[in-house]
């Protein structure tokens, strides 16, 4: 008969501020692995093949996270490169309220992962997101 140790440490997996989408990350995976090792049945321990398979899954998870970060960075650089070619051109874009703005692109900035363009029209400056551009033409 198997009896659980009532003094065994209890590990909980709860809300994490950094984990907005609710998916498990590499820290959660490692925590689960450690808890599994601590609470395994000593008469029927984890087989070496199972342990190696879990470590391989962890390695794959870590590589996918790294790849995702690199793709995100590459996408941001591509957007910045594309938007810089708009300097001096006239664009139409939608503002936050859905109104159409038109102006000559005078500045391109990259802030917090977003490319922002400054449009000048009749001495009035407006700032729009690169993602909100709907039309481009020569000035």
Please tell me about this protein's structure.
The protein has 139 residues and is α+β, with helices and mostly antiparallel strands. It folds into 2 domains: 26-39 and 48-81; 87-137, SH3 type barrels. Helix content is 36%, strand content 26%. It contains 2 helices and 5 strands. The chain has a 5-stranded antiparallel beta sheet. The radius of gyration is 26 Å and the shape is rod-shaped.
Keywords summarizing the entry:
rod-shaped, alpha+beta, 36% helix, 5-stranded antiparallel β-sheet, SH3 type barrels
Helix content: 25-40%
Distance between the termini: 83 Å
Q: What would you say the CATH architecture of the largest domain is?
A: Roll
Number of helices: 2
Helix and strand arrangement:
Blueprint: H1 26-38, H2 48-84, E1 90-94, E2 100-111, E3 114-121, E4 124-129, E5 133-137
Helix pairs in contact: 1-2
Quick synopsis:
With 139 residues, this protein is of the alpha+beta class. It has helices at 26-38, 48-84, and strands at residues 90-94, 100-111, 114-121, 124-129, 133-137.
């Amino acid at each position: 008969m198997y009896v659980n140790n009532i003094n065994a440490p209890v590990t909980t997996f709860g809300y994490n501020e950094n984990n907005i989408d609710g998916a498990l990350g590499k820290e959660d995976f490692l925590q689960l692995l450690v808890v599994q090792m601590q609470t395994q049945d000593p008469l029927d321990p984890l087989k070496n093949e199972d342990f190696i398979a879990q470590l391989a899954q962890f390695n794959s998870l870590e590589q996918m996270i790294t790849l995702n970060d690199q793709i995100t960075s590459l996408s941001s650089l591509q957007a910045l490169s594309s938007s810089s070619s708009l300097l001096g051109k006239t664009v139409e874009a939608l503002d936050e309220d859905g109104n159409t703005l038109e102006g000559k692109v005078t500045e391109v900035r990259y802030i917090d992962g977003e490319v922002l363009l400054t449009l000048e029209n009749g001495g009035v400056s407006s700032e729009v997101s690169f993602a909100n551009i709907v039309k481009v033409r020569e000035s």
